[in-house]
């Protein structure tokens, strides 16, 4: 009789699972109706589009989105288990989504990052760190290496995760999962050790005046902020500052190496406006108009964060369609910035796209390297200033070269930010 109880119990469990799945699908009937308007793979209960994605092959999160977009076209539907994702590169829809008060929550695709960042804001914090904080320390260099390794492990886990919050791919869970958790712990320890190091430095050499950074202010007022909170925020600062700004500068220098005529124009502007050896002051930066256009065009071709997610909390009207509550919209910034509808010859590196008269011809929301709306990058102004300073300093001291002849030669990968799959070809030689 024991076997009969097991069979009955299994049968009851199966019925409960079926009813739960059916109820979950019934609640999403309005989303299924909406999804009929767009391309996408066939939906399978529980699994969503996991198996189709696995069958067509992908190497990481960036590649997964790219492969599906190439397979079915944009905008497209994707089912993350029973979570609906609407991936788009339509500037008009993007403007509404990023500005709308009912779309301020991040999409479910960010859940994998909560393991690392917990209660922190996943936004750039360059402006808060301040110039006075010295990140050129051994712990920060180790953090960059650990962050790069963590992204590799988390990519497969993130793509394979479904509604229940666990990867269906057991190999990814048992190998990449534990490796990623180990690296996350290392990252947290590194941020904690760097906070302790900075606290000791402040005790020996206090920062005075109005230029104290927000991070130093938090450390100096330790009675107001628990050390764990400061460490979490520092981790966000470091990831934002090192990954986004560093990658953006790398792509900018590589593009200048590919286009010596543009590089020469930047050099001439820097020498004319600043000089060969004069220190760069804040007043110089607004004069570097061509340099700014170069950086802007680099950010168009290689946006720091290639995709931005938002969750729709109420039905909203966009054009002639109602985007239903519960939809997760993924703004595919990488594709948006290369959409020929907004950018003629989109893969060409052309800084003059950002002349005032050219900007006026485009919808503003077709260019969003720092996202857009209430949850955009709070450090975008400082990021642009810092990149202009670095580019100006480097270009007046070095000539840059690269073997690439097209942006297509740079194969990309990414989970949080984008980078090249292989070592990038960019060489610097001192100017006489």
Q: Structural class, from secondary structure content?
A: alpha+beta
| Beta-strand share of residues | 5-15%
- Please tell me what the overall shape is: globular
Q: What's the average pLDDT?
A: 77
Tell me the name of the CATH homologous superfamily of the largest domain.
Cytochrome P450
| Strand order, largest beta sheet | 1-2-3-7-4
The assigned CATH architecture of the largest domain is: Orthogonal Bundle
Q: Quickly count the helices.
A: 16
How many structural domains? 2
What would you report as the Rg, rounded to the nearest angstrom? 24 Å
The helix-strand sequence is HHEHHEEHHHHHHHHHEEEEHHHEEEE
Low-confidence segments, given as residue ranges, are 115-144, 153-178
CATH class term of the largest domain: Mainly Alpha
Keywords: Heme, Iron, Membrane, Metal-binding, Monooxygenase, Oxidoreductase, Transmembrane, Transmembrane helix
Transmembrane segments: 6-26
Pfam family, one: p450
Family: Belongs to the cytochrome P450 family.
